[in-house]
């Protein structure tokens, strides 16, 4: 298939790299991340696993790259949508609309930062820091009394909250069936409501 023909120019390589990321994203909308392999991504593209490894050394390296792309796109949309007074609502709802980003984020420490080289992790973390600082600047513009240092702390903590909250808000079918019991109503997690509430509490504390 043309996707996996040898790329001879940098722009060709980048097009093929993005095609791999697109295929991985499509699969993550259909399957849990644990079920998405390089072989399955290659099958979606009509190629072979070796063709994928040309661009990404491991599945985890691919997912890290996809996480960074998804997050950059989300930040663009977040910055365009947020206004004074709408910060936490836009923040929570815009993330809920991007399940691939949230699932990959929730797997960052436990899965994605494993089976990859130290050099790649360093590159990822440097870019991650750059994106955190960009988000902190966006947030600071819309929260009166929030210093740049406090905005930095807020967005860093918000990432940790998302990593912990997302799996509970998106459980397996078996868990969903279990918590349908009226006695377990308190065990059901509404991501938007809980994440927005947590952001409001964090902001209140940091601006006090």
Q: Count the strands?
A: 0
Radius of gyration from the CA trace?
19 Å
Query: Under the CATH scheme, which class of the largest domain?
Result: Mainly Alpha
Q: Identify the overall geometry.
A: globular
Approximately how much beta-strand content do the residues carry? under 5%
Low-confidence stretches: none
Structural class by helix and strand composition? mainly alpha
* Named CATH topology of the largest domain: Tetracycline Repressor, domain 2
Number of domains: 2
Description of the structure:
The structure is a single chain. The chain has 2 domains: 1-56, Arc Repressor Mutant, subunit A, CATH 1.10.10; 59-207, Orthogonal Bundle (Tetracycline Repressor, domain 2), CATH 1.10.357.10. The chain is globular and about 55 Å long. The N and C termini lie far apart (59 Å). It has helices at 10-28, 38-45, 49-53, 59-81, 87-96, 99-106, 108-112, 118-142, 148-169, 173-178, 191-207. With 208 residues, the chain is mainly alpha-helical. It is built from 11 helices and no strands.
Topology:
Elements: H1 10-28, H2 38-45, H3 49-53, H4 59-81, H5 87-96, H6 99-106, H7 108-112, H8 118-142, H9 148-169, H10 173-178, H11 191-207
Short description:
With 208 residues, this protein is mainly alpha-helical. The chain has helices at 10-28, 38-45, 49-53, 59-81, 87-96, 99-106, 108-112, 118-142, 148-169, 173-178, 191-207.
């Amino acid at each position: 298939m043309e996707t996996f023909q040898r790329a001879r120019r940098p722009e060709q390589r980048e097009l093929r790299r993005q095609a791999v990321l697109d295929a991985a994203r499509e699969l993550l909308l259909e399957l849990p991340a644990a079920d998405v392999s390089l072989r399955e991504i290659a099958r979606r593209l009509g190629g072979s696993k070796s063709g994928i490894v040309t661009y990404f050394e491991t599945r985890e390296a691919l997912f890290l790259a996809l996480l960074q792309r998804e997050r950059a796109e989300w930040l663009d949309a977040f910055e365009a949508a947020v206004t004074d007074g709408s910060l936490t609502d836009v923040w929570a709802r815009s993330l809920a609309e991007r399940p691939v980003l949230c699932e990959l984020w929730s797997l960052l420490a436990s899965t994605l930062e494993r089976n990859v080289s130290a050099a790649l992790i360093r590159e990822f973390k440097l870019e991650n820091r750059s994106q955190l600082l960009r988000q902190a600047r966006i947030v600071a513009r819309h929260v009166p009394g929030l210093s740049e240092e406090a905005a930095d702390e807020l967005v860093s903590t918000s990432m940790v909250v998302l990593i912990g909250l997302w799996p509970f808000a998106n459980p397996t079918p078996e868990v969903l069936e279990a918590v349908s019991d009226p006695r377990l109503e308190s065990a059901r997690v509404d991501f938007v409501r809980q994440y927005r509430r947590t952001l409001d509490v964090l902001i209140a504390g940091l601006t006090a």
